[in-house]
Amino acid sequence: MSQATLLAFSMVALITIVTPGPTMLLTLSNGSRFGVRRAFAGMLGAIAADFVLIATVAAGLGALLAASQHAFSVLKWVGVLYLCYLGWKMLRSDASLQDRLPEGGEAMQISGWTLFRKCFLVGITNPKGYLFFTAFLPQFLSPGMPQAPQYAILAVVFASIDLLVMCAYAQLGSKAMGLLREKGTVWLDRTCGAALLALAASLALYRRRPA
Known about the structure:
Elements: H1 3-18, H2 22-58, H3 61-67, H4 69-91, H5 97-100, H6 105-109, H7 112-124, H8 127-136, H9 147-179, H10 182-205
């Protein structure tokens, strides 16, 4: 795999990742609620999901998902329901600004494992991710070289870019907490919640192209 190929992959991955999706919205909200340091646990969950998705595609299961309407539908509706659950909770947010501070009530009650689990589940229950990697990654593989090491390299590059972008989103959310009034931070949560519900609706309407 050449440096030019890795550079092209990195540019396409960056454009794809920067576009706000469910994990980015969660990271933005986590940054506003708990600060960048606490939100990092959620970022690790999203990164773990990246590796699971890419490993699944490398094992050929992504193509199986693309070919099986039943498997695709099951995963899609699990993802839809989970996004609706998270979006509804955020939409009904009424936590005070004091609860959002590092020493506040909400920040102390939410564990790093909870943040990790939320972002991880959002990542692995999105069938678009599997289909995207199934169509996207093979374009950057060298046919004459072993596939597994190449998938591993692409996974590390993609996850690294994802982590950097999520750090920026979390920092943005953290800064918003400092700049906005108390009601403003609540409405930031509600906006993210509404966006998650919109993404859930988009996923519910999504139909994979016939093989």
